[in-house]
Amino acid sequence: MIPGIDVSHWQGDIDWKKVKEAGVKFAFIKASEFPDKKITMYEDEKFKVNRAGAIENGIYWGAYHFFRTHVDPIHQAESFCKFVGEVDSLPLVLDLEVAGSKGSTLVRKVKSFVETCTSISGRKIIIYTSGGFWRPYMTYEKLTDVDWAVEYPLWMARYTSQWPGAIYPWSAWDFWQYSDHGRIPGIKASVDLNWFSGSLEDLRERFLPAGPQQIAAEKEEEIPEPIVVENNTPQSEPQGTGSAETTITEEIAEEEIAGSIESSEPISSPGQSTTSTTTNVNEDVNASSGNEPAVSINTNKNIPCLLSFFQYAFTAKKKEKKVDPQESQDWIDDLVYRDKKKR
């Protein structure tokens, strides 16, 4: 398990040297979006400086585009790829969490974006979404609409202390965004925290371009301040507090669809003032206990504080999660039956 973050201009100025010292190995950085009711692409003003900071400190980076449905998906993909330029680290990312359509119409748009980005960059892009969005919007009409997505890596958002299950058609997730209220050295605001499911070598082999990779030599570092993760208590914040503009949380005890349409503040270029309505997905976090594990300072200088804390907090819980295939099939059958009954 490898720790990482995702950021945007909402995190302000970032001290990437301190972020590196905290143990962060990868970062997804917001690049662009087409704000609601706008046809001009918004380019995140911190993207280039954040990318440069990550590269300078040996942190693997990936660029993501916040997807909208009111602009042609091929135009979005081409504009996104042109702005990012050469992709010599992690693959491009589709950030899918709001919708102006659903079912086959939405699936067609998303697939067009994904295929165009993959064609331009020459690498399969990563799909970021949540179960609370994917199930009611992408599989609204039938599950087989999304069978093609299994060919692309999944970055899943689910805010819970439990080990999360996957989303159809994926058998497992590759990246997991488990909190939008993390605090780490080098970033003054809250930041989204992520896991990669595998070792650092797995990350390099699966998600970095083919050929020799320049890997920064590990240096003995001073022990940084412990990381404080505030993901057990739900907090209500304006859209954009999380770097992926995520307002996604999910029931730990139940796998219920929690997609809902809410009014939110769009992201716009500096100096612009707009008002719009977008679809945000909310999945309530139901923490299993009010007691958070104590965070102690790691005295082993060979293990970064962030990594040792993550291992302490989550590794044991990974083994507790078991999936019953029959129970999963029953859930899918029940979901399809309820959808048909509603129509």
Write the layout of secondary structure elements.
Blueprint: E1 2-7, H1 16-21, E2 26-33, E3 42-43, H2 47-56, E4 60-66, H3 73-84, E5 93-95, H4 104-121, E6 126-129, H5 131-138, E7 154-157, E8 175-183, E9 191-196, H6 200-207, E10 228-229, E11 262-263, E12 277-278, H7 305-318, H8 325-342
Parallel strand pairs: 1-2, 2-4, 4-5, 5-6, 6-7, 7-8
Antiparallel strand pairs: 1-9, 2-3, 8-9, 8-10, 11-12
Helix pairs in contact: 3-4
Task: Tell me what the structure shows.
This protein is an alpha/beta fold. The protein has one domain (2-228, 317-342): Alpha-Beta Barrel (TIM Barrel), CATH 3.20.20.80. Helix content is 27%, strand content 16%. The chain has eight helices and twelve strands. The strands form two sheets. An eight-stranded mixed beta barrel has the order 1-2-4-5-6-7-8-9, surrounded by four helices. Helix 3 runs parallel beside helix 4. The longest helix is centred in the N-terminal third of the chain and has 18 residues, at 104-121. The protein is globular and about 50 Å long.
How do you describe this structure in short?
By secondary structure, the chain is α/β, with parallel strands linked by helices.
Total of helices? 8
- Helix content range of the residues, please? 25-40%
Name the shape in a single word: globular
Distance between the termini: 42 Å
Class by alpha and beta content: alpha/beta
Radius of gyration based on Cα positions = 19 Å
Q: What's the order of the H and E elements? A: EHEEHEHEHEHEEEHEEEHH
CATH class: Alpha Beta
- Which stretches are poorly predicted, pLDDT < 50 over at least 5 residues? 212-226, 231-303, 316-321
- CATH H-level superfamily title: Glycosidases
Q: What proportion strand?
A: 15-25%
Instruction: Give the biggest beta sheet.
Output: 8 strands, mixed, barrel
Question: What is the CATH third-level topology name?
Answer: TIM Barrel
Which architecture would the CATH scheme give at its second level? Alpha-Beta Barrel
